[in-house]
Each structure stands twice: as structure tokens, then as C-alpha cells.
Batch of 2 targets.
Target 1
Amino acid sequence: MSDDKRHHLGSMLARESLIDRDLQATTESPVFRMLPFAQVVKVGGRSIMDRGRSAAYPLCETLGEALELHKLILGTGGGARTRHVFSIASDLGMPTGVLAQLAMADALGTAHMLGTLLAPHGVVAIPPEMFGHLLPLFLKSAPGVIYNGVPPYSLWEHPPKVGRIPPHRTDAGCLLLAECFGCKGMIYVKDVDGIYDADPNQVEDATFLPEIHVRELKAMNLDTLPFDRVVLDILENNKLVKQVQVINGLHPERLLAALNGEHVGTLLRAD
Amino acid sequence: MTSDILTELGRDLLMGSLSDERLLAKTGQTDTVQILPDATVVKVGGQSFIDRGRAAVFPLVDEIVENLGTHKMIIGTGAGTRARHAYSVGIDLGMPTGVLSVLGTFVSMQNARMLHYLLAKHGVPFIEPAQFPQLPLFLAERHAVVFFGMPPYTFWHKNPTVGRIPPHRTDTGSYLVSEVFGTRNMIYVKDEEGLYTADPKKDKHVTFIPEITVEELIARDLQDVVVERAVLDLMQGATHRRSIQIINGLVPGNLTRALNGEHVGTIIRA
């Protein structure tokens, strides 16, 4: 037993406060990549799946081709149903953590639909509870896996500074997963060509930004982004996945190109 | 896609962008309900408390039991010494933050299990995140539950800005439980009186700070603080849990007094 009457275990962090800044700086080392051959593809809920057959079928056909060549981890969002449950739950006085908990169900529904369409290609839909731990197994055995992109923050979601919408939604969930597993790439499939200086669905002369650094994009302080705003912070702190590409899934051939490393949408970089 | 069954907010959310601050502001216009206004979240430190063993833990357990009739306690546990060891080995082996978060969860769970067995004869259950829907029943029936303090982010844990230690650990997980349920109070049971100008275990020339606002505390930019910095950030956006108290659980009676709303340690307010 040591002087301070606590039982310590010998290690470089023993006795130390983990909140101390100097100590935190010493906790750096090269990070091991668990699934460097896998690519994460987030298929938009509202932007793709809610459009129904006209958008989802061609994309699924392309995904089928892609699965012959690439190992894919697919995530989806809850789209319009999540927006609806957010509005009802806000009206009923539910806090952010409850909104996050509710959102899981919608994205899970969308994941089941996308999983059904991709079943002929051997894609397995994995329940969220076992997803993280069994991911390496499933990805070695199947060409692709699908899950609801929602990070498991649930009741532990961070209350945002403005309003009550959970900040870590499916765009964030997919990027966090790609980073933890050290995946090769992260592609957001949306219904716009990439990032614009304004929402191209609302503003006609919005300017397309083919490539931009997170720092620049933050400085522009745009009113809207085609993904969860917290993605910018996550990308800045990422150590392995230092860029993402946003592409238009209404032109499915761009997905094949993006998976091959081609620049067909907006490249958002943090390196 | 307009519909009569959608509220105005519903229509805005359906059509608008969730990255638009003006739209987000509209979602905060109704008051949130306090789901468990009579409960208090009590976080028992890992390294600062449970790792001290019987000498520290048994008297605190007795005090928790004495308060079962008068207070409803949601008791979270820290991780502590073994988490530090696991983080240290894990960082050397190249583990990402998400895996380190899983390792921290395991240690926090061990501590929760031990505290739970000490309280078991009083019918106090240990609940994992999946069992939180039963929390209100257990509180009504048994007046306390034990949970592990780590938030269940696991592989989805965000990287810290500096280094690799998961930034949202058991202080944060416990705090978020108190915020989401709108509990009456959030008490951190540690082995120091509260917040000091530096770590009192390493520096003899420190000053005790009995009360401070989050803004002042962030402005002071201390090298070390008594709770995870993420708690301070989250408090600034919080709806319900705008203050926390850090107390010295080694002093008998402090927990009871803090549960009764008395100021016995450091109170941090947003």
C-alpha cells in the first residue's frame, strides 16, 4: 500500500489524475487499424431511402456491384420518421437523451429495409447490441454488413447548446465507427453533389465546394451542412480517418468511383 | 409532403436541415419534463474511493443504507486504478479510444458489482444501460440502484483533442443520467473536500474553492480539476442539472448532508 492509502497498480498512469493536461499529452501512440480493408458507406435516410424505389433501387444495384469488389460497412439514418418523432417528443417535453433513444428505432427500420434489398448480395443486418464486437467476424464471412448508423449514446446523448436535437446522429455514428475500426474510407451518400456554400435544394445559385479543409469549412460558418455538424469536430480529432467524401447517390455510378478512391463529390479533409 | 397531422415544428423538421441553428432553436421552446425529480445521482469515485477498500467503502455503504428511507439514490461508480493500468497497456498496444472506452467500462462495471453486493441485502439492484427502463420501479420500491458510471459509447467514443484517453468517463456518464432524468441533485463522492486550485495530493500550496461558476472555472484554465472537463462543457448547455457538488465521502455525514441539499464540499454552477 502506498502513502496515500490507496492500492495502486504500477503503470505509466498510476496515481495520476487523468484530467491533468500534461498527462493527457503523453497518451499518444500509433493507433492499430482493426479493419483497414473495409469502407464505411452511410446511405442517407431522408435523402435516399425516403425517396423510395426510384432512388433506392438503382443505388442498391450499384451497391451489389460494389460488394463484389469491396468490403462494406453500411449505415443508414432514420430520415423523416426520426424528424417526426423528434417533433412529437419535443412537444411532450422529452429531453435530448430520450430523443436519441427514440431515434434508434427509425434508423433500425431503414436498416432492415436496405438490408432486405441487399440480402441477395449476401449483406447481413446486425443488431446494434452485438454489432461492434462481431464486426470483424461478419466482415470476414460476408461481403458487407448493415446496421443502423446511430451511435449507442441513447440516454447518455449530450444535450446540445441550442435546442434539443441529439447532436450525434447517424452521420456521426458512421464516422466514429470508421475511426475506431481504422477503416479505409468514409463515404456519405446524399441527394446533393456534395457540400455547397448554401443548401442547393433551397438556394438556386449555391456554389459547389469540390474540396475543402475542415478548418476552412468551420470558418465559413455555413447555415446548413449536408451532414451532422458534429462530424466536423470528430474529423478534426480523428487519427486514422482524416477525410470523408460526400457524394450524390442519385447518380449511383459515383459510388463505385468513390469506393475506388476517385474524387466525384466533395472531399472534406482534416489532414 | 405536408400533412394535417404534423405540427408546425413537425413540418419544419421534416423539410429543414438539422444543422440549421434557427431550426434547432425552435426545438428547445417547450419545457422538458423532469422525469425523476425526487432522485439524486450519487457518483462514488473509483481511484478516489472504491480503490481505498473497506476502510472507505464500508462507512459510506452504511450511510447510503441510512438514507434509503429518505432519499432516492441512483448510484454510479467510477473506474479508477485498474482502468489506468488498462489504458496504459492499451495505449502501448495501439488500441483506439473506442476500445479503451470498452476497457474502462469493464472496470467501472467491476466496481458497480462490488458496491451492489454490499447493498444487495437491502434489495438494491445493479442495472446495466439496457435495464434503465426499470429504474423508476426500482427507485420506488428499493430507493436506490447501482449502475456503472461509464456512458455506453464503447466503440463510438469520440477521440479527445489531445492524447487518447476517452474524454467522457464516469463523471460524465453519471452527470448525463442526472441531466436526462432531471434529478434533484448530482453529488460526486471523492476523497478530497472538493475543488482546489491544483491537485492537493501533489501540491501543498493549494487553496480550496467552495463555490465557483463553470464560466469562472473554465476561465481559470487550471492544469487539473476535480471532475472531468466534459462535465463542465455539458453543464453549460444543460436544461435541468445546472449545478453539481463534489464532497469528501471519507467524512461521515457529508453524504447525508449533501443529499439534504446542504453545502459541504464544492458547488459548481452553470
Note: Chain B touches chain A through 86 residues (CB under 8 Å).
Target 2
Amino acid sequence: MSALNDTAPAAGLAAARTAAARPKRQRYFAIRKPLAARTTTSLSVAFFLLILAAWALISGTGLVSDFFLPQPMQVLATAWAMYAHNGFLWDIAVSIYRVLVGFCLAAAIAVPLGLLMGSVQFFRSLLEPCLAFTRYMPATAFIPLLVLWLGIDDTQKFSVIFVGTFFTLCLMVMVSTLSVPIALIEAAIMLGARPGQLIFKVILPAAKPSIFNDLRIVLGWAWTYIVIAEIVAASSGVGYVILNASRFMDTATIFVGILSIGCIGLISDLLFNLGARYLFPYLQRARS
Amino acid sequence: MPNAIDIHQVTKTFGEGATMVTALEKVSLTIRDGEFVVFLGPSGCGKSTLLRMIAGLSAVSEGGISVGGRPVEGRDPSVGMVFQSYTSFPWLSVAENIGFGLDLAKAGKARRDEKVATMLEKVSLGKFAGSYPSQLSGGMQQRVAIARALAVDPRILLMDEPFGALDALTRVEMQTLLLDLCAEDRKTVVFVTHDIDEAMLLADRIVVFSPHPGRIAEIIDVDIPHPRSIEQTEREDFTHLRHRLRKLLFAMAKRAA
């Protein structure tokens, strides 16, 4: 009996030691287990590098002609030339300006309207079917019509962005508004909130973080629409530069244009995240 | 003085035609001013539905309810409510949550701050005045909810299973707090629960509901003098009452099965 008592803990200890020394595979691929911050960063960077390496390998070995796939260094050189000498920054600025005007116009109407639809069933019944229908009409199909109506100046660019983002944004804001718990609204009613106060002091602040996220997501789509609008008819902007480059079969310039938009997207996400941290401090603390 | 709450022949149905469900059928009850009444019953007995109709959050299908002699039409300023789910506004601090009702009524900063300070002390949350609700435990969140409801001085406090989501120890702590608050300032309280011990500890009168459709099965006076404490629930009279209530509720469960 005593012998058993002596050996059992020892065996248990040994088993525990093996568990601690379990292969890394299990540590890295465990389901819904967080990884250390350093590991996460390393993984993210590693994948970027992996893609870059694959790209360099494929284009460098001549497997694919650099007419179709330019080499990374070629793209880098082109980027330098475009940013430093060819005024590409101006084209980016023009595109950003067009995106922002179109998007802000859409948001200025879509956010209040979505809020109203998510708060008052009357407006939801009135508008939702029509918006859902319009949403499925591709914004790109409106471009010829918009050119016909508005010509090819900036108004046409704004309107393409507007058509591309407004309807969906409206519905997304409505859904975000609807997800405000009814108990929160009823609690406010029992504290004496009138309908206007309910919307502005309860529903709007409660839905704000997810409306903010809706804006972040939809702004990304606006970049797709601006490039299409500029490809169709423009004399400046990132889309115009890409179209021009394709006329001269200048794939490196096309790459720079596309990658630049990717970077702008990353920066805008970063700004939104910083904004959220500043606007919604109570969410940060909840996470920690 | 009129009765705090008069419930006269109230019926509540949900849905229409073949799918119509009767949640409550011809329920009548009078609640006196300053009384602590507990609605006790299994789920589906309509106790919360009745509470929501007293609050004015839901309309009666038939019959009538009046509060302080006035028929209920929407929210009445003399009625406050605490919900089962946590309803603190996450973007406001604890102090701002408690002052929310006073701000809505444009009470003025000085009066609000004074009232908020008083309420913070009453529910022992002084140290957490500047915290956000997400930083609080469930028990603390319900303290905020109680303080927020009481800050606008309602005559009647409706509580819909407010401690249902709390662990057993915190629940007793909250029940004791509620007894203390009531001892300080006598309010009419209607408290919904399915917890027998909770009902016995708190109630002047227990209204037992039976389900399908919701009806009042029995009304039991709890003749145990205040101030009460959790220790008293071990006493013989409590044990008898507990036994009786259990039998009542289990009989209902058997019939429903």
C-alpha cells in the first residue's frame, strides 16, 4: 500500500512533465487558444515575406516573363520613379478626395436614415424592401448612365461612390441599430426617456461602435468603385494611372497602383482603429 | 390614499387565431401602498408579463390596471423598474448611469450630483463612481440598476427577476441590500422570482402563479416581522412555509408534465 503511495505521485509527476513538453504543434494549432503577441506578429510578417519570396522566385527564375509579372525590384524602382518624379502622389490625393467626398455624402444620409429605420418600424417597412432591391443592382452598371447624366467630371466620380456605398451602408446601419438590446431601450423608457431621447441618448450611443465598424468596411469598397469610375473616364487619379499603364503594357506601374491602394486601405483601417480606441474607451477596458 | 396598484380582470394573449396563446387569464389583485409583493411561479406562468403590463411596457388584452388610481397608459413617473438582464449603459460611467434619469428630466447638475452621491453610498459603489459597467461584476451591475431606478424617486419599484443571473452568495448579499433599502425608505415593491427562499425572505405577500394559462393559484401572507435576515430562514415558521410553497410549485410542475 505504502509502495503504491510512493510510486503513484512519481508516475503522476512524470506524466505531468511529458504534458509540459508536448510538441509545439499542439501549442500552435490548439483551437481558440490565444498565442503570444510576439508569435502573432512574427506569423503576420512571415506570411508577407513568404509571398514576396514566392513572387521574387517566380519572376526571378524567368518562369513567367516580366512582361506579365514584373520582379519585386522592378516594381520598387517604378514606385520610386512614380512617387518622386511622376507626381503619383497627386493622383492618389485626387482619388482620396473623390472617395472621401462621395463616401461622406453617402454616410451623411445613410447613417441617420439607417438609424431611423432601425428605431422606428414605420420607416423600416417603408424603405427596406426598396433599398434591398437597389442594393443588388451593381453600382458599376450605373456608370454609363451616370456618365450620360453627369458627364465625366468629379460629380460623376462622387456619384459612382455614392451609388456603390449608400444603399448597403443604410442597411448595415439599420442592422447595427436593430442589434441594440431591447432591454436597454426599455430601461431608458422606465427612467422617463421620450422617443427623441431614446434615439439620441440610448440607441445612437449604443449602436455607435458597430456603426463605426460599418463605415470602416464600406469605405474599403469605395476604393473599388473609384478605380472603376476612373478607368472609365478620367484624366487623373489612381484608376487613370492604372488604365494608362495598361495601354503601354507597363505592368510594373499597374502593380504600384494596386499595391498603393492596398496600403491606403491599411492606413485607413489603422486610422479607424485609432479613432475607435479614442471614441469608445469603455470597449477597450472591457477587453483587458 | 388610493391603492398602489389595482389589477382588475386582466387577460393577456399573444398572437392571433390558431396560434393564439393566453399568457394570463382574468387576473385580479390589489397591492397596497408600501407593500412588498412577490410574484412566484414556474416559467410560463405570466408573472413577468403582468409586471411588464404594470410598467406600461406592454398593453393588456382585456381588463384594466391602475397605478395610484390612474389607469396605466405607458410609463408612469411613479414607477421604476429593474430588469433581469444587465441594462447599465456601457458607454456611461457608474455615476452617469445612476444620474441618467435625472439628466433626462433636466434636474440640474447640483441636484443630480447630490442624488448620485447619495445613491452611490446606499449601494456601496462609491469607489466605482468613475468605472464603466464592463469593469463591474454582475452583482455590482445590478446595484447600479437599482440605484439608477431609485435615483428618480419612484413610489413603486418593479423588479423582474433582478438577481436571477447572480451566483448564490451574491444573490443573498443583494437580497440583504434590498431589505436594507426598503427598511430605510418604504416603497411599494413588486418582485418577480421563481426562487422560493428569495420570495420568503423578501415578501410581505407572496402571490403564487400557476401556468397555462397564467392564473393566481394562491396568495400567502408572510407574517414574519421586519427586519428580516437570511438567518431567520432557518426558523421553523420559514421551514413550514418553504414546505408549503414547494408542494404548491411541484404540484404545478406535475400537472404541466
Note: Chain A touches chain B at residues 181, 183-184, 186-194, 197, 201-202, 205-206, 208, 280-283, 285-286 (CB under 8 Å).
